[in-house]
Design goal:
Order of helices and strands: EEEEEEEHHHHHH
CATH architecture of the largest domain: Up-down Bundle
Radius of gyration: 21 Å
Shape: elongated
Oligomer: single chain
Number of helices: 6
Strand content: 5-15%
Helix content: 40-55%
Number of strands: 7
Strand order of the largest sheet: 1-5-4
Length: about 250
């Protein structure tokens, strides 16, 4: 039975305790963001486009304005082909930032898994992810540095919270939630790298995504059956019987 991947959107944090104190969020490198007046089907929507060099607040911070899917000022638009609307590109700068975020989150998770996982299969997977994603992160960083692209250098808030929540677990409970978290992060990575490999405008970033995509899909193929095994165990009749055996959900003893 194959997993319904959509159910794992928030599964990594399920049943995980949150610490009373949270670590300070480190300052993150600012990245170009889409302008509000982006071009959609040859019509401008939203507010007027910013002038060159102008900054606007985005999510509580000011970032340089950038056109969606822009490469050297080129804007990714949509064109009608045979009566259908086809997207011609994605924002390479946003892909680079998303890929960096994902890679940092993957390393953070995998380092935690290598330390705390009790399942030997998860421990081996964690070490493999540390080796592979360290190399992939360095390749992305080098490519972006050559282009003068600014990408995040610190773990984002969501990944910090996920790691902190997992750190409060142990034993099989940790293994189960960790496997789900790894599934989610790799699902997100496949989606992002597929979009860039298919519709990226920058040839170097597009090639990087295309080269990395088979590896990320292979990682997803490895973690999916592990996560499925834990989910099947969680859904097993014996586990359900134990949970609802007494009023108030107390296990039967």
């Amino acid at each position: 039975m194959r997993l319904n991947r959509s159910v794992f959107a928030a599964a990594a944090l399920a049943a995980a305790p949150v610490f009373a104190q949270t670590p300070p969020v480190q300052n993150r490198t600012e990245i170009p963001a889409p302008r509000e007046g982006q071009v959609v089907e040859s019509q401008t929507v939203g507010t007027p486009a910013p002038a060159a060099g102008e900054t606007r607040p985005v999510a509580g911070r000011s970032v340089p304005a950038a056109a969606v899917g822009a490469v050297g000022g080129q804007v990714a638009t949509r064109s009608a082909i045979g009566g259908q609307v086809a997207a011609t590109g994605v924002n390479d700068a946003l892909f680079a930032a998303a890929a960096a975020d994902n890679g940092l989150a993957e390393l953070t998770l995998s380092q935690l898994g290598a330390q705390r996982a009790t399942d030997p299969e998860l421990k081996r997977f964690s070490q493999q992810m540390i080796d592979n994603h360290t190399r992939m992160n360095n390749e992305l960083r080098a490519t972006c540095a050559q282009k003068g692209m600014r990408i995040p250098e610190t773990v984002d808030v969501r990944a910090q919270f996920c790691a902190q929540s997992l750190a409060g677990l142990s034993g099989e409970k940790f293994d189960m939630c960790y496997a789900k978290a790894q599934l989610v992060v790799h699902m997100e990575a496949v989606a992002a790298f597929e979009a860039e490999a298919e519709r990226g405008l920058d040839p170097n970033l597009k090639a990087l995504a295309a080269q990395a995509l088979p590896k990320i899909k292979a990682h997803l193929g490895q973690i999916e059956p592990i996560a499925e095994r834990y989910c099947e165990k969680e859904r097993s009749p014996s586990a359900e019987h134990s949970r609802i055996g007494k009023p108030g959900g107390q296990p039967i003893r």
